[in-house]
Write a structure and sequence with these properties.
single chain; mainly alpha; globular
């Protein structure tokens, strides 16, 4: 992947361990989200890429909810993620389900990561 990764803010070993723990309970959600954003699950480290997508999505939500407007690059990144989630969906309920799934994966990952400190 090019550019910065949301996982750059985390210790790699602890992040890997947290991801493995998260996959015990949330592997189905990872698959649902990967399918929903059109990412193949037969590639190496696909779970890591889906997790990074989720963490980026949380950053987008925080930027949208903040008082100060985000920079143009961040707006473009967030809109690209929204387009990726909405592509091929027939209604907002499907998109909202993917958004909620991404949010839950990211929040659960952060909670597991924090407990490991």
């Amino acid at each position: 992947m090019q550019g910065s990764s949301a996982l750059d803010n985390y210790d790699l070993k602890k992040a890997q361990k947290s991801l493995q723990m998260l996959l015990i309970d949330r592997s189905n959600e990872f698959r649902i989200l990967a399918h929903g954003i059109g990412y193949p699950i037969n590639t190496q480290d696909w779970e890591l890429i889906v997790l990074n997508f989720c963490l980026d999505f949380i950053e987008c939500f925080q930027a949208w909810a903040a008082d100060n407007p985000p920079d143009h690059h961040h707006i473009h990144k967030c809109m690209t993620q929204m387009r990726q989630m909405a592509r091929g969906k027939s209604n907002m309920t499907e998109v909202t389900h993917l958004q909620n799934t991404a949010y839950l994966i990211a929040e659960d990952f952060k909670a597991i990561y924090k407990r490991m400190e």
